[in-house]
Each structure stands twice: as structure tokens, then as C-alpha cells.
């Protein structure tokens, strides 16, 4: 028998029947459930009385009785401590903050709008220098029916005699654990794959006839569209007529749909000429909408590819000719004009419109590609080359037009008009020190048949004398010190003949002393050595 007495203002009485050869609890402060007979039998002693003084007087009826796993509770009790046995410190709970009893010391609770963990009283309570009586038991943190199963919080920071906390090493993070977002992604993928499997199996053994009246909705569905394409490839006239009959009135919506455009492309590959003309007539009023759509442009290009008769060509050109310039400048529409230039035989009308607007179209980031496709038609591009050559200076200074001039020099190497424009000293210098114009001069020196004539003009400018009879080397000095002009001189050295190389070296060598230390100066110096 062990009895503990305390004379504190809030006294607790604990009486324990315990054989002297076995401790009541081991040292790991584990929770023991007393709701079953099996757990109660593991305790060597039985707790007979547990009296709590709540400041209401000395009542002997307030007890916790544990007999054969049954717990009873009386709220009227007085506590008196008598220590006649060994004190087991593992049974001493930490100081709780309980709604079922007063705190172990006088503490004013914070207002409701201040979280208790941030209150000044709680900060003082958590201080490591708090004087805590290890032999005093306090009111339970939970109601009596649940208090034994609750694990008290650790009190390692409190100074208690005969208390030896067990310090467990921190649990290392699981580096191999899968992040939550990946788990969610995997679950979503699994769910999505399940849905896909159901959708695919839906069309596994089906025929187009099974979906009569639903063809239009299937055309705008990923799996339904693929199913219909497989049915079209079978090339059964009845199936083609069934599908065509349900979609022909909505051909514009399908041509601009992310999935439906593939069905239209497959249809144009397998239907007859009359059926193609019928679909074009149904959609010709919306050609601009279709051509400028990222999905519609693919459908319309397929329509142009499938044209095999003069009637279809005329129908297509008739509906596009009023929008050639607009489509040439559009991100998606320019591909329609390019397809007409490369696939249609009678495209003179489109060519004529492009030539009339070649300067405007050449200076556009998408239109310059259309003009380059026109230059591929060597037998029909003479008029276009003439128009571009007359505006070579303007286009060479343009961020996009310079590419048209360079492409023209590659396709048409001999052009007297371009040579005449570039051999003028002011034009040559203006282009040579320009970011885009210098590219045109270099392309001319590499590709054109008139490059020797241009280099001769350059040498004549370097050998010319001023009024005082001295050589006028101002042009070469400016080109050597210019970030773009020095590349023109390097290209001239690389593409001139031997006689021109000697003359050019004699002009440049005296001027290199000031730029020998620069990267471009060293490159030029290495070329003339």
C-alpha cells in the first residue's frame, strides 16, 4: 500500500495497492487503456482511490475506482496525501491547461480574440525556469471517460527530480517519398486512362450506322472523330453518304474544330469531285474565318491539295482573290496563299495581285514568305523581280524586306538594275553600315555575277584623290571602324579576284594600325597577310 499526501492549496490523494517486487508502469510513459480487462491485468496493482480537491471542501466521495477494468467517478471529494511507499515518478503527469479544472497556478486566460499560444501568460508558463512540483497531481486534460487513452505532452524542458526523459532521434525525412502532387497526377492519369479505355471500347466493335443521328457530335470528339476516320477509310459509299449527309451543313464549324478538322480532311481525300464542290460551296462565305483559324487553315490547305479540276480551281480562286493581301499578312492565312501558288496551275490572278502589292507585302513578317514563294516560280516572276529591283534600297533597309532581296539574289544572280543601284557610292555606304542592308551587300558579293563590278567600284573610291591630291580613304576608315561595315570589307576580301585582293590589301594595310587590337581588326589583318 502506497499513500501520498500533499498539503498544497489544491491537494490530490492517490492510494495504490502494489506488490513490492514489480513497478506499476515502465519508464517509457506509455498510455495504458483501462477499458478492457486485458490491459488492466497488465497492471500489477489497482488504483483504488483518486481524489481531487476542487476547492469545495473535504469530501471523501470524489474517487476514481478501477476494479476489473471498470472505471467509476465521483465529483465530491477531498484529497489528503500520505506517503508510505515508493514514489514512482513515471506516473507524474505534466502541467496541463484543462477546461475541466483550474490550471496548476493562478493564470488569467487571454481574451477570446487572442490565441492562447500567443498570450503573455502562456509565454510565461512555457518559460524553462518555471518552478514545478513533481509530487503534485493535477486535474485531467480530458473527460474521465477518455483521459487514460490520452498521451500527455512532453515536459522535458521542466526541472524535475528523478525524471529522466527519453530522447529519441528525429525521424529523417523520407527522400524517396512521392510528392503529393505526383500522387494526384498519377491518380488523375489513372482515372483519365480508365475513361479513355471506356471511350475506346465504346467504338471497338461499332459501325457508323450504329451512331446515326450522332455523327456531328462524334466528329467533335477525340475518339469519335478517330472512329469516323476509320470508317471513311473503308471507302464504303453508304458510310460516306451517311457521314457526309450529317456534317455537310456544319462544315464550317468542323473545319475550325480541333478534332473535326481532321474528319473534313479525311472526307476530302475520299469523296467525289461533286461532293467536294458541294462542301466548298457550303463554306465559301466563311473562307476568311476558316483561313485565319489555326485549325481551319489546315482544312483549307487540304481542300486545295485535293483540287484536280479547273472548275474547282476557279471556284477557289474566285472566293480568295479579294482577300489575297489580307491573308498574305495573316499568321495562318499566309499558308493558304502559299498553297495556291505551289498547287494551283491557273494562279495568275493571285500572282498579279501579289505583284501589285509586293512592296507592302514584302515588308511584313508573314508576307515576306509569300513573296519568296512567288520568286520560286522562275518563269512567272520576271515582273516581280523588276518591281523588287527598283525598290532594292528601300527593301534592303527593312527588317523583313531584306530577306526578300537576299532570296531574289540567290534565285536571280544577274540583275543589272540591282547592280546599278548598289554601285552608287552613297547607296553602298548607306547599306554597308546598316544592320540589315549590310546583309544584302554581303549576299550580293557572295552570290551575284556582278560582284567583281561592285568591288571595282569600291577600289575606285579608295584610290580616288581629293582636291589637294591626297588619297581619300575616308570611306574605308569609316567601314573599318563600323560594327557592320567591317564585315562588308571582310566579305570583299574573301570574294574578290587576286588582282583586286592586292589593291584592296594595299589600301587597308596602312589603316589597320588603329584597329589591330580589336577582334575585327585582327581578322582583317590576318586575311591580308
Automatic annotation (TrEMBL):
One GO CC annotation: cytoplasm
Which BP terms from GO are recorded?
A: negative regulation of gene expression; post-transcriptional regulation of gene expression
Which of UniProt's keywords are assigned here? Repeat
Give the molecular function GO annotations. mRNA binding
Write down the InterPro entries for this protein, in alphabetical order.
ARM-like (IPR011989), ARM-type_fold (IPR016024), PUM-HD (IPR033133), Pumilio_RNA-bd (IPR033712), Pumilio_RNA-bd_rpt (IPR001313)
User: What are the PUM-HD domain coordinates in residue numbering?
Assistant: 189-529
> Where do the Pumilio repeats start and stop?
210-245, 246-281, 282-318, 319-356, 387-424
Q: Which SUPFAM superfamilies match?
A: ARM repeat
Segments carrying the region annotation (Disordered) are 1-40
Transmembrane residues, as ranges? none
Q: Name one Pfam family in it.
A: PUF
Residue ranges with Low complexity bias? 1-16, 26-40
Q: What is this protein called?
A: PUM-HD domain-containing protein
Amino acid at each position: 500500500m502506497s499513500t501520498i499526501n500533499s498539503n498544497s492549496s489544491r491537494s490530490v490523494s492517490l492510494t495504490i495497492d502494489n506488490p513490492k517486487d514489480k513497478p506499476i508502469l515502465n519508464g517509457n510513459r506509455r498510455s495504458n487503456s483501462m477499458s478492457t480487462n486485458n490491459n488492466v491485468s497488465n497492471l500489477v496493482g489497482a488504483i483504488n482511490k483518486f481524489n481531487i480537491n476542487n476547492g469545495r471542501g473535504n469530501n471523501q466521495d470524489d474517487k476514481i475506482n478501477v476494479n476489473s477494468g471498470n472505471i467509476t467517478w465521483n465529483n465530491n471529494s477531498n484529497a489528503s496525501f500520505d506517503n508510505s511507499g515508493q514514489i514512482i515518478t513515471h506516473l507524474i503527469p505534466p502541467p496541463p491547461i484543462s477546461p475541466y479544472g483550474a490550471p496548476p497556478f493562478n493564470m488569467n486566460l487571454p481574451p477570446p480574440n487572442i490565441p492562447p499560444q500567443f498570450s503573455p501568460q502562456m509565454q510565461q508558463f512555457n518559460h524553462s525556469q518555471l518552478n514545478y512540483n513533481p509530487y503534485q497531481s493535477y486535474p485531467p486534460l480530458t473527460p474521465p471517460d477518455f483521459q487514460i487513452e490520452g498521451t500527455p505532452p512532453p515536459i522535458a524542458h521542466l526541472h524535475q527530480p528523478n525524471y529522466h526523459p527519453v530522447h529519441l532521434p528525429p525521424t529523417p525525412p523520407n527522400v524517396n517519398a512521392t510528392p503529393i502532387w505526383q500522387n494526384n497526377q498519377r491518380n488523375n492519369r489513372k482515372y483519365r486512362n480508365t475513361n479513355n479505355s471506356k471511350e475506346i471500347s465504346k467504338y471497338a466493335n461499332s459501325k457508323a450506322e450504329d451512331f446515326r443521328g450522332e455523327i456531328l457530335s462524334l466528329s467533335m470528339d477525340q475518339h469519335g472523330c478517330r472512329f469516323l476516320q476509320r470508317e471513311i477509310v473503308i471507302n464504303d459509299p453508304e458510310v460516306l453518304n451517311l457521314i457526309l449527309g450529317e456534317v455537310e451543313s456544319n462544315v464550317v464549324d468542323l473545319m475550325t474544330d480541333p478534332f473535326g478538322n481532321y474528319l473534313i480532311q479525311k472526307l476530302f481525300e475520299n469523296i467525289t469531285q461533286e461532293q467536294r464542290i458541294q462542301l466548298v460551296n457550303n463554306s465559301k462565305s466563311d473562307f476568311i474565318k476558316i483561313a485565319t483559324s489555326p485549325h481551319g487553315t489546315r482544312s483549307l490547305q487540304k481542300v486545295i491539295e485535293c483540287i484536280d479540276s479547273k472548275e474547282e480551281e476557279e471556284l477557289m480562286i474566285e472566293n480568295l482573290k479579294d482577300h489575297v493581301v489580307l491573308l498574305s499578312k495573316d499568321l495562318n492565312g499566309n499558308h493558304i496563299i502559299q498553297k495556291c501558288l505551289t498547287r494551283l496551275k491557273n494562279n495568275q490572278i493571285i500572282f498579279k495581285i501579289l505583284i501589285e502589292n509586293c512592296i507592302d507585302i514584302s515588308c511584313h513578317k508573314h508576307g515576306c514568305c509569300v513573296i519568296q514563294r512567288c520568286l520560286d516560280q522562275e518563269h512567272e516572276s520576271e515582273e516581280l523581280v523588276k518591281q523588287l529591283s527598283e525598290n532594292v534600297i528601300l527593301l534592303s533597309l527593312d527588317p523583313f524586306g531584306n530577306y526578300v532581296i537576299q532570296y531574289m539574289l540567290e534565285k536571280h544572280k544577274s540583275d543589272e538594275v540591282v547592280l546599278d543601284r548598289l554601285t552608287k557610292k552613297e547607296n553602298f555606304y548607306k547599306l554597308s553600315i546598316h544592320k540589315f542592308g549590310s546583309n544584302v551587300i554581303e549576299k550580293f558579293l557572295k552570290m551575284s555575277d556582278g560582284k567583281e563590278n561592285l568591288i571595282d567600284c569600291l577600289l575606285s573610291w579608295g584610290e580616288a584623290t581629293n582636291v589637294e591630291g591626297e588619297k581619300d580613304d575616308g570611306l574605308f576608315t569609316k567601314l573599318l571602324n563600323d560594327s557592320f561595315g567591317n564585315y562588308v570589307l571582310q566579305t570583299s576580301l574573301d570574294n574578290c579576284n587576286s588582282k583586286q585582293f592586292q589593291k584592296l590589301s594595299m589600301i587597308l594595310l596602312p589603316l589597320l594600325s588603329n584597329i589591330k587590337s580589336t577582334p575585327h581588326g585582327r581578322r582583317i589583318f590576318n586575311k591580308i597577310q
